[in-house]
Amino acid sequence: EPFVADEYIERLAWRTPGGGSRGGEAFDPKRLLEEFVNHIQELQVMDERIQRKVEKLEQQCQKEAKEFAKKVQELQKSNQVAFQHFQELDEHISYVATKVCHLGDQLEGVNTPRQRAVEAQKLMKYFNEFLDGELKSDVFTNSEKIKEAADIIQKLHLIAQELPFDRFSEVKSKIASKYHDLECQLIQEFTSAQRRGEISRMREVAAVLLHFKGYSHCVDVYIKQCQEGAFLRNDVFEDAAILCQRVNKQVGEVFSNPETVLAKLIQNIFEVKLQTYVKDQLEEHRRSDAEQYLKNLYDLYTRTTSLSSKLMEFNLGTDKQTFLSKLIKSIFISYLENYIEVEIGYLKSRSAMILQRYYDSKNHQKRSIGTGGIQDLKERIRQRTNLPLGPSIDTHGETFLSQEVVVNLLQETKQAFERCHRLSDPSDLPKNAFRIFSMLVEFLCTEHIDYALETGLAGIPSSDSKNANLYFLDVVHQANTIFHLFDKQFNDHLMPLISSSPKLSECLQKKKDIIEQMEVKLDMGIDRQVEILNFLTLNCMIGQMKHILAAEQKKTDFKPEDENNVLIQYTNACVKVCGYVRKQVEKIRNSMDGKNVDTVLMELGVRFHRLIYEHLQQYSYSCMGGMLAICDVAEYRKCAKDFKIALVLQLFDTLHALCNLLVVAPDNLKQVCSGEQLANLDKNILHSFVQLRGDYRSARLARHFS
């Protein structure tokens, strides 16, 4: 701890008796002074002792420092001497090494010609044996020395190639025969070693055969034996992948050029196994079953390209991508050349069959429906005037649009797009995709949707129909749904195939044209439907309401015989009319969208109000009958709220206020007529409602209203 003099003095005084007020002791300054003097003397003695010890240690340290410095100087001198010796030794070693290298070069210069001479002498000796016709050397007679014999005969064979045929024809034939025999023996040895699984022996024999003409035959034998027992399952592609993976691990241990051998194995698999398998699978259905043929072609091509992707992991040389692509092309070229023709033919027949099967299920025979200005004019005249200018097609409420048919057509086209993407040449892909798209447009848009629209336009009922038919609105609803599916397939499956080609603009234009054509017919149909809803369908609906009111409304409803025994809240005619109207409003909302809904509902609401207004004026009302009429109008007003049209609701609010004139006290008639809802109405209208009262002819009522 750091030394603090004040604290030290305090502790010393505290320990000294009489040095402080401790336990009641009196303070004794003399004793404290004496203690301080004695303690100072002790500190002085301690200081002298420590000082002597410090001086002694300093002297010892100086002495050791001098000795250490002396020792370091001696070591430096020794190091310099050793470094000089090392330099001398290094120079001497360099000198000796130079001499040794020079001597080695001289020995090599002497030994190389000597070795060549010895080798030439041996070859001459062996050549003489072939000249004599008798092979005596152990290297030719001992089967264990086949490697040395192969090396010798290979060299003799090269020498024999340079000799004139007329003088050495016999010896050349003998050497060639021995060359061939040894080559066959080596290949046989390689085959046996492969069957035994002796990789080291296979590597030795392959290294010897590398310089022989039959080396390629050795590779063929290896490839043939590798495939024995490799294709036992039904999945030839998986078997091929497993085989190549196994051989890839082994071929590098056996051959000096493993990539060439592996490439040759893969080529053999493609050109023999796969090509045979593909041919068997496709030729069976090529003429008889286009659907199965296309499915098999797509599946086989996909699995072949998948196998090719797996083989890309192996070392097959510099341009393995081109190598594998050529192999795939060699297998499928005869099938891919006319693929798109088969695809279009199948798609055309399949689509026609789907449509025909649907129409047959509906017992419907497709007919040719006239189009154009004259036909449209005739149709408009027929519907406005009810003149027999040609029969209206009775569809019995059938839209002739089927989501099942659409899904089937889109599914077939989707599969065709997928096959097109996989099987078409990249340069032909946009063109082929456009042809498939044209088939979709022809059968889905033209043969199905357009036919349904034409049939729907021709099936809109005439004005003398007893039932309102919103049939064409169902056609519009289903056509909109189908258009969404068509557009989704266009974006999801066609666009990726043509996005970067000039065909993109052509497809977009074709799509735009077909949609515009359909929209024209849809708009025309909707316009006609709205128009006919004004002149025909709404007439039918209003006619149906009139029929309900005429059949269900009784005169006694509003002038009951017993005024005091009326138990109903509203009449049966009101209940049935409101139920009918609500169903029609719901159907209109489900079949149309946008402003068309509001337009049709406004027209229907206005005419509905007019019908109820005119209907109420056909009866005379007692006091209780007037109350029942008010209840009926209140229910009609609730029904009008479903229209969600402000004008319609306002009309029924006014009608409800008019009905109050049927029950109000005569003295209050003027006050009610001047109310907010009735003040702006024509006085004749108010008078006409007041006249419906059963007590109208009383002088009092006439006086009050005049």
From TrEMBL:
Spell out where the chain crosses the membrane: none
Q: Which GO terms describe its cellular component?
A: exocyst
- What protein name is recorded for this chain? Exocyst complex component 5
Which GO biological process categories is it annotated with?
exocytosis; Golgi to plasma membrane transport
Superkingdom of this protein's organism = Eukaryota
* Keyword Membrane tagged: no
Q: Which residues form the Exocyst complex component Sec10 N-terminal domain?
A: 29-137
Indicate the segments annotated as coiled coil, or none if absent.
40-78
Which family does the entry's similarity section mention? Belongs to the SEC10 family.
Q: In what residue span(s) does the Exocyst complex component Sec10-like alpha-helical bundle domain sit?
A: 148-705
Q: Which Pfam families match?
A: Sec10_HB, Sec10_N
Annotated keywords: Coiled coil, Exocytosis, Transport
Sorted alphabetically, which InterPro entries does this protein's record hold?
Answer: Sec10-like, Sec10_HB, Sec10_N
